[in-house]
Amino acid sequence: MSDSCPGSGRTAPPRPRPKRSDAEVNRARIIEIARTAFTGAPDASLHAIAKAAGVGQGTLYRHFPSREALLLAVYEADLEALVVAAPDLLEEHEPMDALRLWLTRLAAHGRSGCGASRAVEAATCPTPGSPVHPPVAAALDQLLAACKEARQLRPEADADEVLLLVSFLWKTTSGAEWQERTERLLGIVIDGLRTPAGEDAREPAK
Fold it and tell me: What CATH number does residue 33 fall under?
């Protein structure tokens, strides 16, 4: 069907995008509040989260029938943000800097305190019959490919092995010192992934 107005010869203005439903708004709000609540207090009650989100407990339970379901939703929302961050980081930073910043975000996600560390480990460290989470691997592949194209990264580095290598990032001891320790350990990993001295002038592999 044409969007032109009959007889006018003019094109009708584009239809506005439909607004998100109240249910979608409530769900997003609950996830946002839960993220903050679980980060500050992993044992935060669902009642407190519903109250802070300005919804009734019935509304919360319609979206998230259990605490585990809410934790998983927080984890998935954060993981999606991590995945979409990869191209943005590559636009704003040099490839190796973008890779380091992305891995730092991955570490922060695993150390968020909202019960996501085991979920992150499951998504990034494959076990027999359980592959690496495809969106995470794809995001990391994009970063690694950019680093290789810039001849800054060992050509043999791949997403599966890098994710296994950095799995320690969310297993460091808790407390205020974890960020400093994470940055130091991640620096060692990044240095190990760099193209060996004397090889950076080689033509990239076809």
Answer: 1.10.10
pTM comes to 0.68
Statement to judge: residues 141 and 107 lie in one domain? yes
- Mean pLDDT value of segment 150-168: 88
DSSP 41: -
CA distance 142 to 121: 20
CB-CB contact of 68 with 125 (8 Å): no
Q: Are 34 and 126 members of one domain?
A: no
- Do 93 and 26 fall into the same domain? no
Q: What is the pLDDT of residues 82-105, one digit of tens each?
A: 899 999 999 999 999 999 999 988
Q: Do 49 and 6 touch, CB atoms closer than 8 A? A: no
Tokens of 83: 């995945």
Other C-beta atoms closer than 10 Å to the C-beta of 97 total 15
> Rounded to whole angstroms, what are the CA distances from 53 to 36, 58, 171, 205?
11, 13, 31, 52
Query: What is the extent of the structural domain holding 38?
Result: 20-65
Rounded Cα gap, residues 26 and 13, in angstroms = 30
Output helix, strand, coil percentages for the chain, rounded to the nearest 5.
60, 5, 35
Residue 142 shares a structural domain with residue 183: yes
Three-class DSSP category at 76: helix
